[in-house]
Amino acid sequence: MSNPIVGELIDLLQLERLEENLFRGQSRDIGTRYVFGGQVLGQALSAAQRTVEPDRIVHSLHAYFLRAGDIEAPIIYDVDRSRDGKSFSVRRVVAIQHGQAIFNFAASFQVQEDGAEHQIDMPSVPMPEDIAPSEQVPPEELAKMPVKLQRWLGRKGAFEFRYASRRNEIKPEKRPPQQQIWFRLIDKAPDDDALHRALLAYASDFHLIGTAMLPHGISYLQHNVQVASLDHALWFHRPFRTDDWLLYSMDSPSARGARGFTRGLIYARDGRLVASTAQEGLIRVLPD
Question: Which of 71, 151, 158, 277 lies at a CB distance of 3.0 to 4.6 Å from 264, suitable for a disulfide?
Fold first, then answer.
């Protein structure tokens, strides 16, 4: 691993252990107004994974975002060892800043077992090599935006995204609430399955809320559109690597009451379904 951006993200997920069940994580400013939800997901999973036996693999996690996270302050992760059975372990994690809970999280871990197996086929989309890299926002458009948003759009992140269907975020058109996006780390990561699961938790928060906005022709770039993750669920099905291409296939069955609900299926490029997600997000259009 030679790319410093990827190294910084991996370091972000390597928490400092304060006590047996207490961890501290730092935040990375990626241009969002508050702490990026995927960061808290990945760090909470990292904390939980460090309290279970190595032969127990996380198969599901469920989380609620309670308060906006302060980018300038560290986050404390308090892990409760709820249960250790013969086959399953359950962990609850509370993320704390400034004396208040900002995030609740629960994850279940299982000893690997054989059993019945099936999956839904991967949708037919162009392979990532056949899709041009995403274009940057034109400089004249970027200059009109707030400084934070300029950093978000102008940054080079740890993940590369390639869109099966292009979308103009500055002038979005109404379209059906579904999209497919290839993504991967921009550099190789260590051979550590627990790290790759935390990295996937981090990346899984990208693009879900955006899918629910597609049929309304609105974008998070608009000054009067307020978006935030409210809850998030992630299920792990099969082994994967985040430094190989993964396809994120998303759809949004419903939006109502300033909330949009989105589902996602994540496939390896060989067609294996490796993970599934679900999220409800705030989508609030404010008066001009």
Answer: 277
Give the pLDDT confidence of 31-62 residue by residue, as tens digits.
Answer: 778 899 999 999 999 999 999 999 999 999 99
Residues pairing with 97 in the sheet: 100
Cβ(174)–Cβ(215) below 8 Å: yes
Token match 């993940």: residue? 159
Query: Is 279 among the catalytic positions?
Result: yes
Distance CA 205, CA 234 (A): 10
Question: For tokens 């127990």, what's the residue?
Answer: 56
- Helix H or strand E encompassing 106: strand 100-111
Catalytic entry in 205, 243, 252, 276: 205
End-to-end CA distance of the chain: 46
* Choice among 97, 204, 229, 276 that is catalytic: 229
**Mind giving me the DSSP string for 191-235?**
S-HHHHHHHHHHHTTSSHHHHHHGGGT--TTSTTEEEEEEEEEEE
Dihedral angle at the C-alpha atoms of 102, 28, 222, 206, nearest 10 degrees? Answer: -80
The tokens describing 277, both together, are: 């997600």
Burial profile 56-84: b = 16 or more Cβ within 10 angstroms, e = fewer: bbbbbbebebeeebebeeebbbbbeeeee
Phi-psi region of 214 (alpha: psi -120 to 50; beta: other; left: phi over 0): alpha
Write down the mean pLDDT value for the chain.
Answer: 92
* 194 φ, ψ (degrees, to nearest 5): -65, -40
Is 179 among the residues known to form the active site? no
Annotation says 112 is catalytic? no
pLDDT over 80 at 167, yes or no: no
